[in-house]
Amino acid sequence: MKRYLLLFVFLLIGQLVVAQDKQLPAPRTEGGMPLMEALKNRKSVREMSAKMLSDQQLADLLWAANGVNRPDGRRTAPSAMNCREIEIYVYTAGAVWLYQPEQNSLRHVLNGDFRAEAVMQDFAKEAPVLLVFVSNYEKMARMNEQQRSFFEATDVGYVSQNVYLYCTQEGLNTVVMAYIRQEDIKKRLGFNGRALLAQAVGYAK
User: Would you say residue 12 lies in a domain?
Assistant: First the structure.
């Protein structure tokens, strides 16, 4: 009986360790490919390796997507009325995280692999990093439904394009997907808003 109790305690401790939030390295914000060259080479590529990105690459990717680039908290991507409503969930083989731009960190949401639940495309179910872009309706409370629908669609496009440009200069493959399992994502994550797009990111095979 004591042996089983000890095993349970060890498993519980292991679960708590896995479930901790993750502080990301400071993003590298200098250098890189010239903008015109990145625009010239930007493209969608669906084939990608299962190799995981480094923490530094993840930090750089998320900062480029929608990170804080000014002391007042404003972002690399514009947003209507400065609502900053686009949030990024990071799906990996082992967990789901929510990017926290102000803290440059990942907040742990769930343990487990939920990529296949979020997307329909087979290649994206194996992508090492699957970004799911969600609009937070609590941050859009002053907008009516028509405004909210228009601005969330516009703002998520800026974030997705930032991901494309970062991946181009970093030599990573990426593709954005509009056909996602919106209701399944929302039910699993429990946010007040809408899942808008997903974007797979990974090394070339």
Answer: no
Residue 178: which of 154, 155, 195, 161 has the closest Cα?
A: 195
pLDDT tens for each residue of 122-134:
999 999 999 999 9
Query: In angstroms, rounded to a whole number, what is the distance separating the alpha carbons of residues 166 and 132?
Result: 17
Taking the C-alpha atoms of residue 201 and residue 50, their distance in angstroms, rounded to an integer, is: 10
Q: Are strands 95-100 and 105-111 parallel, antiparallel or unpaired?
A: antiparallel
* Domain CATH for 47: 3.40.109.10
Q: For residue 72, how many other CB atoms are within 10 A of its CB? A: 6
pTM above 0.85?
A: yes
* C-alpha separations of 141 from 5, 92, 144, 148, 192 in Å: 49, 31, 8, 9, 11
Determine the pLDDT at residue 155: 98
Distance CA 22, CA 3 (A): 32
Whole-angstrom Cα distance, residue 170 to residue 38? Answer: 10
| 174-199 mean pLDDT | 97
Q: What is the pLDDT of residues 138-156, one digit of tens each?
A: 999 999 999 999 999 999 9
